[in-house]
Amino acid sequence: MADKKPSASSKSGSRAKVTFLEQNSPIDEYGRALYAVARSVIRAFIDSLSEEDLADINTPLDKVRLRQLAKIARLDRDKGMRGDGFEWAVHEAILGKEPKVINPVSQALNRASTKILKDACPTSLLFGQERAKYLGFLEAMVDEAGNDSFLLPQGSGRPFRFGHWVSVAAQGYTAEDQLNARIKKIWKTDLFLSVEDDPRYFAATVKSNVMQLEGGQGLRVGIVPEHPSTAYKKEVTYDESKGLWVVSLADPNGFMGLFNDGYGAVARAFLTIGKHESANYWAVPSAKAQKLRDQIIKYKDATAIEVVDALNEAAQQDLLSANDKLISVNAPHWLHVKKMQPTVISPKPKFVKLD
Q1: Which residues does 349 contact at the CB level (< 8 Å), separation at least 6?
Q2: Which domain holds residue 320?
Q3: Which of 96, 101, 178, 293 could covalently link to 265 via disulfide, CB atoms 3.0 to 4.6 Å apart?
C-alpha cells in the first residue's frame, strides 16, 4: 500500500496509516532483514520502559508515541540499550530462523550435548530476571517450554525441572542461596535455548560487548559479536576459563554487521526525534539503513506499537519461498501489559535557612 500524505482531517486527529511497504517497490533480502532488526530493537526499547517511566510521561504503554519513547531512550553506548537491542535481535533471529544465527547456535548446542536432536531447528525463550515482574511472564515462559522440560547444566547428575528452578532464578542475585550449586548463576541467563521437540534447555548469556562475557554455574552458551582481539576466531569455540560454548557472530559480513546497521538506523532516528546530542562513535548506516531511519522519523507521532507492527509486516513483504528468513515474529503478550505507577503526591517543596 502506498504511503498517503496527511490530509487536513489527519492533522486534526487521525493519522496516516503506519506502513513501511511501498507500492511497486519490492525490497531485497537485506532490506527485509533490516526491517526485522529494527523491529527487534524498538521492542527492546519498549521492554526497557519501567512503570516509573510510564508514570513520568503520564501515558499507558499502548498509547506511548514513538516521539515519547525516543525522548526517554537510553541511547549512550554504555547505558545498556545497545545490549538490550542485541539480545532481542538474536532471540527473534532464532525464532525467525535466520541462518546466520541458527546455524552456529545449532552447532554450539550439539557440542554442548550429544543427546539433543541433531537436525532440529534451535528455539529460544527470552529470559531476564527484571522481566519476571511482568504480569504473566513466568507463566507464559514455563508454558511455552512445556511441563516436561528441564535444564541441562554441566556435569553429571539429575537434570533440573525447568519451571521450578526458572521461577527461583527470576528473583535475581538474591536467589543464589536457593539455587543448587550446579545452576547457581542461571539468574544471569538472557535466553534459554533448545531445539524443536526437545525438552532439554541450555542457559545462554548474550553480550553485545565481547569483553563483558562471563560464565557461571549453569550457563552453557555465550553469544557475542566477532572481535579480532579475542580468542573466538571461529563461529563456535569452547572457552574453558568460562565453561561456555561461545557463538561468535560475524562482523561486518554477517549478522553482527546487519545488527549494527539496523541499530544505527533506529538510534539515529531516535537521536533526531528525541533531540539528543550525537556522539562521535556512531557509525554511518548504509544507504538502505539511512532510508529506514528517514521512514521511522516520518512516523514519530504514531504509537511505538504501531511502528513495531508495521516493521513486522514489512519483514515479510513479498516472501517468495520458505527459504526467506527473519520473517515476522509476533511480540510476546507480556510486553504490552506493564502499568503506570500511581501518581506520586509530593509535599510542597520548602527549604530551611542555611546557617
Answers
A1: none
A2: 25-83+255-336
A3: 293
